[in-house]
Amino acid sequence: MDPAAPKSTGITRRKFATAATAAAAGFVLTGCGPKRLYEMPRDRLRKALDDMEREYSNTYGKAVTVSDTGAAPGVLFGYALDLSRCIGCRRCVYACVEENNQSREPQVHWIRVLAMEKERGIDFAHADPYYQPELVPEEGKFYVPVACQQCRNAPCTKVCPTGATWTEPDGIVVIDYDWCIGCRCCMAACPYGARRFNWATPSIPPDELQPNTHYLGNRPRPKGVVEKCTFCIQRVRAGRYPACVEVCPVGARKFGNLLDPDSEIRYIMEHKRVMVLKQELNTVPKFFYFYAT
Amino acid sequence: MTGGALIALGAATLAATISASARSGQAPGPPQTPVERPEVPPPPFSEGIFPCSACHADMPVNRTRRALSDMHTDIVLRHDEEHRWCLDCHSAEDRDVLHLASREPVPFEESYRLCGQCHGEKLRDWRAGVHGRRTGEWNGHKQYLLCAHCHNPHQPRFAPVAPKPAPRRPSRGSGAR
Fold first, then answer.
1. Are B135 and A246 in contact (CB under 8 A)?
2. Tens of pLDDT along A210-268?
3. Fewer CB within 10 A of the terminal residue: chain A, N end or C end?
4. pLDDT, tens digit (0-9, with 9 covering 90-100), for A8-35
5. Is A132 within a domain?
6. What is the ipTM of this complex?
7. CATH code, domain carrying A136
């Protein structure tokens, strides 16, 4: 080998390593590149939200607002569903679709109601989400609506390669659609099948668009991102009940703050027989099922 | 200071209780914790049926248990009908109110107290916000419903309803376009 050849470039290994380290440090310290929602400076975030509002308002021909309301201190949201009451009418499914701007075509439903045999008990292998009798409830059946279980030990957030999904301080597992790359690792990780993928550009009739949106919730989604239940983040962070709670005709759905001893949800935890789905997986859901009778 | 205030408060409460029970002519029982009256929408009367006294004021009261043949024939009782009939819940003295087993009159706006005589655990859950539908704010103002808004008091069991459409089955060719 010619010992003079490496010197001809003028870059030694040491110089290259120093320059690369400096560049990497600079990238990190100056915070180059796009920002996640809460890492953005306030003015830049406001501008991003303004841009979104303008874009959605133009697309749908009505004034759309995009909120970035954060979690309130001392709040941990929990949900409870009374299996002894649910009649499987699917009112919740369609209230959710309308409130959260899910795609009508292709069809996206965040809530899936599973019909199960009373004789078998909770048995996912024999559950039927496509039941369509003339009238419900059917003899010998019970119904288990399943949406995101808002796990405290959420497998979906751990597998995301871009950090596009995480748990908020009030316990809501959220997705930043601008960071989702559509790899669907989270869908594979979720043991409840609660996440949905936008295989095509979602279509929502403009007159049916729900214009009060949240950045991490029901704002219109692009093609190729994952979405799921957020406890109606745009409603609950404004103090309201989720849409499914208010629409349920039998009052089977209950919602509240797990840290408030006077809340409905705590009354249920302390007085009723409460369970979670697939407890053995140690996902620790904040969505509970109970029997009030 | 605080102790004195407490004693004064206790005395005042006792006096109020005694005078209240003296008025209603009941024996003084253990002091009841006042339960706040939940805010409810107006009772779901059938069109033009209320006030009952509009018709009943001039009618003599017939306390014989019987099947009604002239009026109210649309009401079919499927609510412990073997043991019960109209005047067990509807007052014969004041036709515009209900009454408890104790014959205490109860306005229709507080009909949950009547239902709670038998369904006490449901009433307890309802007050806690666990039985029945709630709308409003999870941390603030909530709207309650009366039992009768969801359950027909004469046939309280829910009638079956038609379910909304099932989700479409995933099939070849219905995916991305």
1. yes
2. 999 999 999 999 999 999 999 999 999 999 999 999 999 999 999 999 999 999 999 99
3. N
4. 667 888 989 999 998 888 777 655 555 5
5. yes
6. 0.82
7. 3.30.70.20
Q: How far apart are the first and last CA of chain B?
A: 79
Q: What is the pLDDT of residue A10?
A: 78
pLDDT at residue A120 tops 50: yes
Look at B140 and A199 and tell me if their CB atoms are within 8 Å.
Answer: no
Residue in chain A lying closest to B164 (CA): A90
Set of chain B residues whose Cβ sits within 8 Å of the Cβ of A137: 160
Is the residue at A27 inside a domain? no
* Dihedral Cα A221, A223, A229, A235, nearest 10 deg: 10
Give me the residue label for tokens 């209900």. B98
> What's the mean pLDDT in A139-163?
96
Query: How many domains is chain A partitioned into structurally?
Result: 1
Q: DSSP state, B155?
A: B
Does A16 reside within a domain?
no
Is the pTM here over 0.90, yes or no?
no
Three-state SS for B3?
helix
Q: Is the peptide bond before B165 cis (omega within 30 degrees of 0)?
A: no
Q: Residues A82, A292: contact at Cβ < 8 Å?
A: yes
Which residue in chain A has the smallest CA separation from B134? A246
Q: Which of A11, A128, A83 is nearest to A274 (CA)?
A: A83
